[in-house]
Amino acid sequence: MEGVGGDGVSGAAASLNQRGHEVWKLFQYYLDKSTPHAVYRWIGTCVLLVLYALRVYYIQGFYIVTYGLGIYILNLLIGFLSPLVDPEMEPSDGPLLPTKGSDEFKPFIRRLPEFKFWYAITKAFCVAFGMTFFSIFDVPVFWPILLCYWLVLFVLTMKRQIMHMIKYKYIPFNIGKQKYTGKKPVSGSSSRAD
């Protein structure tokens, strides 16, 4: 007599599993729909940032959670600003990024794409916000020391990243669409026959 009394439990588990799968599909659908709307996604994340900052300010605690969140975001920022193939780490026959105007154009491909960067930051703010509801994560610390340490870490990390950008001559941001201006006429070679 296998399954006596077990069919109800396994049926409920299967139903719950199916519901979870449907919720995940719905979440993925809306996540995919939000992909082309970068400005609105980032505005939503900024709203989460403000809500989190207000909650931490109002409670006057959870500074260690905020410090951990800052370190995680700094790590994500490094991935966002770094090229997919680091010329310093990858041994190659020649330069991977163009260094002169005559080199072949190779677009900048990020190690961490913008969408994944946004999604990871948004998840991090949601997790950190959720952690503020549990007193176990409110470790008493002297927050000015954490802030100073994080600022020093940020400055040193960004200095190293900027030096890397200068050394390998890449810009990780698109500054608008490049416009073709055409060939510029040489003033001495255009003569009219009258």
Automatic annotation (TrEMBL):
Membrane topology of the entry: Multi-pass membrane protein
Keyword line: Membrane, Transmembrane, Transmembrane helix
InterPro entries registered for this protein in UniProt: Rer1
Main location class: membrane
Compartments it resides in: Membrane
Annotated TM spans: 39-58, 64-85, 141-158
PANTHER family attached to this UniProt entry: PROTEIN RER1, PROTEIN RER1A
Function in brief: Involved in the retrieval of endoplasmic reticulum membrane proteins from the early Golgi compartment.
Family to which the UniProt record says this protein belongs: Belongs to the RER1 family.
Name of this protein: Protein RER1
Organism: Coffea arabica
Gene expressing this chain: LOC140036758
